[in-house]
Amino acid sequence: MQVGIQTSAYHHYLTRSWQHLLPHPHRVRRLDMVSNVLSHFDIVGLQEVDGGSFRSSHVNQVEYLATRGGFPHHYQQLNRNLGRFAQHSNGLLSRLTPTLIEEHRLPGTLPGRGAIHARYGDGPDALHLFVAHLALSHRGRVRQLDYLSEIIQPLRHVVVMGDLNCTPDQLHSHSRFCASLPLHPVRPLLSYPSWQPRRALDHILLSNSLEAQDVRVLDHLFSDHLPIAVDVALPPSCQAVLEALHKQQSY
């Protein structure tokens, strides 16, 4: 999300860098554009959103997008707390309320990277979804992928999504992460930079029990990364767990 900054050229990293510190009058209007696109999905993972500070005009962007997009459930993970000046966060928007949500502070030399773990349903056929934002450095990513591997290894139906800051080849080179669970990336999609995509840095990874359908990159210049999307077909056992959860929440 880049906290609602539109970046459509490399020089904008310099000329629009002030928007990381100061409010912009058009930021809410951009959030409205984003929410219109997100409203077509069931689950949305967000990175680089502001949790409500001076630079975002005290708007919690996760909550705002959830309300405007019609999502009954949302969750904000605050990763870098700069007080009233910045609330750098990950976010989750969901039409189905998770049974359990856990926050994970990812290891690294520089603090401020995190992952949200949302569990839908109970038992071995529950759906587990991770929203993650990994480090820029190779060493930092190795530690963070090792950390996630420990959590993912005993799980069955898993989705890992987010800005992983590495290409598919770099991801596959982390043998421990790949061995923890056969997570297969959907068709690599070029997502960075958004105005002329050349690299696949944003990923949706699925366990072998899940099937990717209609994989696509969304041609919307919301930030310096393009959003990616996929329709996921669940196995009958997992689908039954989610249907039971939906009925329970409907009551």
From TrEMBL:
The keyword Coiled coil does not apply. GO terms for molecular function: endonuclease activity; exonuclease activity. Coiled coil: none annotated. Pfam families: Exo_endo_phos. One of its GO terms (biological process) is GPI anchor biosynthetic process. It comes from the Bacteria. Residues 27-225 form the Endonuclease/exonuclease/phosphatase domain. One of its GO terms (cellular component) is membrane. Keywords: Endonuclease, Exonuclease, Hydrolase, Nuclease. This is EEP domain-containing protein. It comes from Billgrantia kenyensis. The lineage of its organism: Bacteria, Pseudomonadati, Pseudomonadota, Gammaproteobacteria, Oceanospirillales.
